[in-house]
Specification:
Number of helices: 1
Mean pLDDT: 82
Strand content: under 5%
Keywords: Cell membrane, Lipoprotein, Membrane, Palmitate, Signal
Distance between the termini: 69 Å
Oligomer: single chain
Family: Belongs to the EcnA/EcnB lipoprotein family.
InterPro entries: Entericidin (IPR012556)
Pfam family, one: Entericidin
Order of helices and strands: H
Number of strands: 0
Protein name: Entericidin A/B family lipoprotein
Radius of gyration: 20 Å
Amino acid sequence: MKMAKALVLGTVLMGYLGLAACNTMSGLGEDVQTGGEKLEKSAEENK
């Protein structure tokens, strides 16, 4: 019975960490995209 509880708890924790990682990567992607847009705008202004 202890093994089953540990397995369920481990699965829930892994799911939570997976969702947190997806959220983090999504935020990172948005930050990189925003930085790229600013760089592109700056390059256009300084032609």
